[in-house]
């Protein structure tokens, strides 16, 4: 089985499933009913990414509640989740988990600091530094850990590392655009795409 098989449908549109619905289901029950709902939602997301987000928006709309769900998802993106937690205890894996969580934690503050220009600029610098640290952690894992003597694993992680780099550059480009036109919403969307690439790497490594 290819390492990427379990990542089908793992897209930015699907973030609502992992940071909103799964925690709710965990709070309600850990029994078979909860597992059945979780499995059904994951299957639905594979075939129709974003269906969970649409479901949540539909419920809120029916209740007359106005919410910027993009901002909510970004604020919640650093929430702890088994889905994105590497369980291996080797130092290289622990360091990557730490760096990725640090990056998501900073990204999650964007909606709060966006109204304060000095704090926003400082946060952007911290995000750039955290991206560099996470990339270095991935490279150390590549170089030092025997798990990546396996060529298929190396190709899989290298592919997602390239996606992470691409998403990081797109985030940087989005910031440049924001400073010209002031459209902060596209920054939030780009940040969610970056979070998704982080989570994809974590999920890939969690499944080793």
What is the end-to-end distance?
12 Å
Order of helices and strands: HHHHHHHHH
Instruction: Calculate the mean pLDDT score and round it.
Output: 88
Number of β-strand runs: 0
Q: Uncertain regions: pLDDT < 50 for 5+ in a row?
A: 1-9
If helices are DSSP runs of H or I spanning 4 or more residues, what is the number of helices? 9
Overall geometric form: globular
Strand content: under 5%
Describe the structure.
This protein is mainly α and 208 residues long. It has 9 helices and no strands. Mean pLDDT is 88; it is low at 1-9.
Brief overview:
The chain has 9 helices and no strands. The chain has helices spanning 15-28, 32-47, 51-62, 69-76, 91-107, 110-113, 117-144, 151-181, 184-206.
Question: Mind sketching the topology for me?
Answer:
Elements: H1 15-28, H2 32-47, H3 51-62, H4 69-76, H5 91-107, H6 110-113, H7 117-144, H8 151-181, H9 184-206
